[in-house]
Amino acid sequence: MKIRKIQINVEEFSGGEPLPDPDKKLLAAAQQTISTSYAPYSGFHVGAAVYLANGQIITGSNQENAAYPSGLCAERVALFYANSRYPGIEVEAIAISARADNFAVDYPVAPCGACRQVLAEIEMRQKKKIRIIMHGQNGFTQVVNGIENLLPLMFSEEKLKRSK
Q1: Does 20-155 carry CATH code 3.30.365.10?
Q2: Per-residue pLDDT for 143 more than 80?
Q3: pLDDT digits over 40-54, tens only?
């Protein structure tokens, strides 16, 4: 047996440390988009903003449905719309922020497993890492460069190929 240690790199910004301006602008778009969330069941409202290589910012919010799992996360709403609207344009960064109806979201909100897999697929397709900016309701923000920092043992297209 062999034990392999996996490390990830996370940039952390507290309330006193300013985010770089492009990250700040993208995060502001994600925060503004929270207001379009439809989350009557969980009361957990999420906004996401995607920055594309052509300079466009595409936003999305979580959309719940009484027939779980028919809803969709904010990240996938934004990413899928970006690819539909601007096919072939690379995703440079995504910012995610949240607020809840009944408690303060004091931690940076990370993408769920399904959203991580979608980010992994996009990175593989475009052969370029995506900057992922995660924020809650306070000034604490975490940033990672590349999905492997959130999903180190990801499933990939290569695992679908059979050897003869």
Answers
A1: no
A2: yes
A3: 999 999 999 999 999
Q: What is the mean pLDDT of residues 103-119?
A: 95
Mean pLDDT of 78-95: 98
Name the amino acid, one letter, at 155. F
DSSP structure string for 65-122: -SSTT--B-HHHHHHHHHHHHSTTPPEEEEEEEEEESSS---SPPPP-HHHHHHHHHH
Q: Where do the domains of the chain lie?
A: 20-155
> Please, which pLDDT band fits residue 56 given cuts at 50, 70 and 90?
very high
> Which positions are annotated as active-site residues?
75
Length of the chain: 164
Q: Which residues contact 87 (CB under 8 A, 6 or more apart)?
A: none
Please say whether the beta carbons of 45 and 99 come within 8 A.
Answer: yes
Within 8 A by CB and 6+ apart from 161, the residues are none
**Cβ neighbour number for residue 149 with a 10 Å cutoff:** 17
Tokens 């999305």 belong to: 60
Q: How many CB atoms within 10 Å of residue 126? A: 15
